[in-house]
Amino acid sequence: MLVYGNRLIYRYLSDFLGLFYPKYCSLCSEVLVYGERCLCSYCLSSLPLTDFCEQINNPAELVFAGKVPVFRATAYCYFRKEGITQHIIHLLKYKNNQQIGIVLGELLGAQLSQNQDFNSVDFLIPLPLHKKRKKTRGYNQSEIICKGIANVMPKQILTNAIKRVIYTSTQTKKSIYSRYENLACAFELNQTDNLEGKHLLLVDDVLTTGSSLSSAIEVLMKIKNIKISVACIAFAGH
Ligand SMILES: [Zn+2]
Predict the structure, then answer these.
(1) pLDDT tens digits along 59-93
(2) Which CATH architecture has domain 48-235?
(3) What residues sit around ligand 1, an ion, with C-beta below 5 angstroms?
(4) Which of 26, 38, 120, 225 is most exposed by smallest CB count within 10 Å?
């Protein structure tokens, strides 16, 4: 009863403070109501969700087919140009909106934890940024997503299993093929003690050609009996 009472007081207090310090939806700027974080219910319900998590040989998994062995792969929503997902990724990567990454990570994590294949992972590995890029941005967006996932699916996050050794500055302007070549040796194993025989979940923001993820997976495959799955927020492939 006391807990319920406290919760009620908190709710009144947060509604009351909201009158003076309202919080807004990161996407549509509507005032958020109690229980909403970062995104309003309308925007949340407009996310173009995939059902990849429950689907074997889904489009996210086909991205890696014939390139690198991936146990399972999934992405939470579709990335459409000028769409809501692109807006979210832009806020997360370029506007320092880390909370939106946590919220999306939690949504993804809730889905993963309901699936036996994904729930069996031992560790979460955020795709690393080059240290120079991380310094400019101030954070690695994939690490933020991992924190969100771990809030609802409690798994340890490993940030130093691999490191990115090549700094690619104008990646978006290059063609798919030169990007692939560019990233061929972009990663290096770093701290891999006790990873033999484990199931790793590699996490990134957007899955497009999968070239950086494939390159990271290739490197992780050097660990004995390793099993690798992939989870992203957005799917921009075909
Ligand atoms: Zn909204």
Answers:
(1) 999 999 999 999 999 999 999 888 999 999 999 99
(2) 3-Layer(aba) Sandwich (3.40)
(3) 25, 27-28, 30, 40, 43
(4) 225
